[in-house]
Amino acid sequence: MTILIIEDEEPTARKLQRLLADVMPTAHVVGMTVSVEESVDWLRTNPRPDLIFMDIELADGQSFDIFNRVAVASPVVFTTAYDDFAIKAFKVNSIDYLLKPVKEADLRQALDKLQQLKNVLADSAPTNVTALEASLSNLLQQLQQAAPATTTPAIPALRPLPHATFRDRFLIKQGQRLFSVSTEEVAYFFSRNKLSFLKTRDEHEWLVDYTMDELSQMLDPRRFFRLNRQVIAELRAVDKVHLYFNGKLKINLRPAFEEEVVVSREKAGELKGWLGE
């Protein structure tokens, strides 16, 4: 089986590649792309892969844009940290929908589902086709009942889960030394060159072995807020909030962040509510 991985966070892509090697040793990853533009170019110039693993949020837009620019004949397994994309995902070539961080059992189930669908297509008996249509129809009904009525945000939000246990410390590796940093010491998490870092209140920066999407699921949403794709800030690190054009907000962090931090218009209201409006 040939596989294309479309994922803009390198640690996540490599982790998925390792999982695939464990679950299906005969699978061959023939390409790894990080953006809509790069993925469109790859699909136009390479043979059709047997399966595509596709992150929904990419650096230059949503992966759904790929389908508007090039014919995608391969079945797709979508991956994302935010499950409100489910309905849209199943309107294209999707055979499954995996939440990050991807677990081995879920990946194995998705690959099994692909094989079952291949068997159905190989045997065109009406009973099999009818069963497949009924199964997909039932799946869509379940997703529609579970999906929220609000507009889907472009960035995965931090949301409390029932009985969830959130991380209160992170193990840091520095050379041969290991030490722990408490979330009480963290001002914010940020990404740089596809790697994730935490910055402490006393302005130390440390590399963390998680993607921003994974961190979004680990942190207490009462204390941390994902301002944009690049920054997750702790409440006390939000120094000043300024009105920006087109309904956006501009944030000053403490300690200062090296780049401009802008919150989209879609998330501005959510941020105000988190701050206590």
UniProtKB/TrEMBL annotation:
Domain HTH LytTR-type intervals: 170-277
Family matches, as Gene3D superfamilies: 3.40.50.2300, LytTr DNA-binding domain
UniProt keyword annotations, A-Z: Phosphoprotein
Residues that bear 4-aspartylphosphate: 55
Response regulatory domain mapped to chain residues: 2-115
Pfam family, one: LytTR
Record SUPFAM superfamilies: CheY-like (SSF52172)
GO molecular function, one term: DNA binding
Protein name listed in UniProt: Response regulator transcription factor
Organism from which the protein derives: Spirosoma validum
